[in-house]
Amino acid sequence: MRIGLSIVALMMFGGCDYQAGQFDHQATLHTQTRGVVVHENGDVAQAGMFGTTCDVYTGDASIGTDYDYASDEEVVTDIHMGEVLIVSPDSIIIQDGRNAGEVAQPGVVDSRLTDDGFVSVSGNDAGCSVSWTGDMTVSTAVDSGLCNSTSMSVDRTNGNAFVGTADGAFGVDADGATQIDTVSDLISWDPTAEVLYAATSGGIEVLGLEADGTERWSVQLDGAVASLEAMGTLGQAVVSIQKYSGHGEIVTIDGITGEVLTAVATPSAADDLASSEDGSMVAVTTESAVHFFKMGE
Known about the structure:
By secondary structure, the chain is mainly β. Helices cover 0% and strands 56% of the residues. The chain is built from no helices and 29 strands.
C-alpha cells in the first residue's frame, strides 16, 4: 500500500444515532477514494484510491488485498456477479478475484457491466459514442454532452444504458440516444422494481420513471439531493440529501410506490453511494471518507 489510512469502527459517529431496524453504522474508512463498489453479500468493498485499488472489509474498514495497476489513475465504477469494472485511461479492466483482463477503450469516460460484457461512454476528437462489448460489439454516436455525464446506469439484461447529464437523462441503445427527462442528472436503474430513479442535483424531488421516461411516481424530500443509487435486489432506492439544518441524511424509497421507508442522519451529504447486490450494505462516500452502513434486521 502507498496510501496512509486512518480506520475507525463505530456504532455511531458525529453525534448521530442510528435507529435499529433501519441502518446500522459499521465502520468508517478515512481516506479519499476513486470509486467504491460493494460485493454481493456486503462483507467486502473495493475502493479505488490514488495510486492503488484495495479490498476493504466493511465490518471494521480494514484493508485486504491491494491491486496495483499500470496507470495509478484507475476509477472503480461497477460490480456484477463478482466481477469488478475499473476504468483506466484509454482502457477497461475487468477484475475477477485475483485475475484481471484489460480491454483497450480509447477516450473512455465511464463504463458499466452487463450480463455478457460492458457498455462504455467514450469521447475523442471524432466525437462522443456509446459502445457495447460482449457477445456482439457495436458502437453508436451520441451528442457530445453525454461525454460530460454526471451519472451512468445500465439494464444488465438488454445492455440499454442510462446517462445523466447537465441537460437531463438519456436512454441509449444501439440505435442512439433518446432524452427521457429534461432536468435529471442523477440516475440509477433498478432491475428489481424495473424503475429508473432520477433526480436533479440540489433539487428536492426524486422521480421513479419507466424505461421510456414515463413517470411512475414522484416524491419530495426534506433536503437537497446529492446522490442516489438502487439497492440491489431490494427494489428500493437509497438517496443522500443535504438537510437545511446543515447535516446530511440517507433516505430509502420503495421503487414500486415511491413511499419513503427510512431516514437516517449522517454528518454530511454523500458525494456518491454504492450498494451491495443484495442491498444489505451501503457505502456512503464523502470527500475524505467512506462510511459503511448495514441494513438493520
